[in-house]
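Researcher: Sequence recovery benchmark, item below. Answer with residues only.
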């Protein structure tokens, strides 16, 4: 559903995260089992969606009825095989949105496997596999490659997510959440980066390499502020192209997402044990061991409908901040332009300089891009940057997969321990911020929280992804200077 589409009488109204109560998971009348938690309202089929829909997944493909989507798909495929797709942004959007929508739809049709990230994996690797076997039309490859690089869709997406996340985070929430929520987040990052540095050094993988190529993309809380911009940073620092790093980074993120879901299921099982190992181990769905936790850390309600002028203002704000970040990156080359954009957006937020309508405009633009264009981005990344041969070489490295698993374990355990020390419950703090930082964001958050039977913590997952993602990207920009 687009933001401008009115809701029908038969369509359930969204429930605001701050309205969700926090009873014990074991209660028979627990209303959170029936609640639909929304941070925004993307169309069905979007990998960036955090919306729980009761509509069968086969009813819509990228928001379109199957018949109409089939017509659009046939036109795009025919044009690629004829070699006549226009080499511009419209051609790039046509190919990536249509193919991404189809792959997300296929992935959502497969039960059980879809819960561990099949839709994301299909978008990330299937186009690259088709190219590897010379099945994908060359015209499509050329158009999408130019779309991602020369025409700048990669920067277009990443900057929209960064600016929307930072400026859109309520100033009061950023300040109030710090003492209680950011502490386990920073603790998990410190422990994970430090642990991977030591393990990488001991195993011969390389300490800094383990941090930047495994821990950092995993802990970014999603692809938009993780593997995708990090590949640009590393290419800028080391030379070469983003594609030289993208395969390893994306492989680490996707595999880590599977591990996160498995651990979340294990936490759910441990939470059902009659005897707790120690007080505060299981909050039965409550994140904090203090009263009024829902009010202290809650995301504000998103607008149900968007203003087209507001989206235009959001685009303008995002574009100008990117230009300013690029200028600062040239003047002070120690930090990547993305890091400067983070600092500029954070300064605007904390200084309270932006009027409310401009803040909402930037946030709405970022939400729109993130909710509908994630599949398109993944398909573009797969076509442009991922070499399946290089991915297989990475997986063949005997230390690669163990380091990924250890990264997730350190993240969740350290987050739980530090959270427990600041009056959080261990299991809930292990899940968010711990596991939520290490999954793929969006659909990854939904899968992790569902496996843990704690979907009502979605508001805290959104907070984790916003704060944690930009923090990891900033730290990574600094560490990349030592490569």
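Model:
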């Amino acid at each position: 559903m687009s933001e401008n589409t009115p809701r029908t009488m038969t369509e359930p109204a969204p429930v605001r995260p701050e309205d969700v109560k926090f009873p014990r998971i074991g209660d028979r009348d627990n209303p959170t089992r029936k609640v639909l938690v929304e941070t925004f309202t993307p169309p069905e089929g979007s990998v960036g969606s955090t919306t729980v829909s009761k509509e069968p997944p086969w009813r819509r493909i990228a928001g379109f009825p199957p018949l109409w989507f089939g017509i659009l798909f046939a036109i795009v495929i025919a044009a690629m095989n004829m070699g006549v797709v226009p080499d511009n942004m419209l051609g790039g959007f046509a190919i990536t949105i249509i193919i991404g929508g189809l792959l997300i739809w296929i992935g959502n049709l497969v039960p059980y496997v879809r819960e561990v990230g099949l839709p994301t994996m299909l978008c990330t690797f299937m186009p690259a596999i088709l190219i590897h076997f010379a099945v994908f039309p060359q015209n499509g490859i050329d158009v999408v490659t130019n779309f991602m690089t020369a025409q700048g869709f990669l920067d277009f997406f990443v900057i929209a997510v960064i600016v929307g996340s930072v400026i859109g985070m309520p100033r009061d929430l950023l300040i109030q959440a710090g003492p209680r929520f950011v502490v386990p987040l920073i603790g998990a990052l410190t422990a994970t980066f430090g642990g991977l540095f030591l393990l990488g050094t001991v195993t011969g993988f390389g300490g800094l390499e383990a941090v930047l190529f495994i821990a950092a993309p995993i802990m970014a809380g999603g692809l938009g502020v993780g593997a995708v911009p990090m590949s640009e940073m590393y290419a800028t620092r080391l030379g070469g192209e983003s594609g030289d790093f993208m395969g390893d980074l994306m492989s680490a993120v996707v595999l880590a997402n599977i591990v996160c879901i498995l651990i979340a299921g294990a936490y759910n099982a441990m939470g059902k044990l009659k005897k707790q190992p120690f007080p505060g181990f299981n909050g039965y769905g409550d994140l904090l061991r203090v009263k009024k936790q829902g009010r202290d850390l809650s995301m504000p309600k998103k607008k149900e409908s968007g203003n087209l002028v507001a989206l235009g203002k959001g685009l303008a704000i995002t574009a100008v901040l990117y230009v300013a970040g690029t200028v600062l990156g040239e003047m002070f080359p120690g930090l990547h332009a993305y890091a400067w954009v983070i600092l500029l957006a954070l300064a605007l937020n904390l200084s309270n300089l932006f009027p409310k309508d401009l803040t909402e405009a930037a946030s709405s633009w970022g939400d729109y891009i993130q909710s509908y264009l994630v599949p398109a981005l993944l398909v573009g990344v797969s076509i442009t940057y991922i070499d399946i041969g290089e991915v297989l070489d990475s997986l063949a490295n005997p230390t690669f997969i163990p380091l990924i698993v250890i990264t997730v374990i350190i993240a969740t355990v350290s987050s739980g321990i530090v959270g427990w020390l600041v009056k959080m419950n261990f299991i809930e703090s292990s899940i968010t911020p711990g596991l939520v930082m290490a999954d793929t964001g969006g659909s990854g958050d939904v899968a992790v929280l569902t496996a843990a039977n704690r979907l009502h913590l979605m508001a805290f997952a959104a907070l984790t992804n916003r704060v944690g993602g930009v923090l990891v990207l900033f730290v990574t920009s600094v560490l990349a200077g030592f490569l």
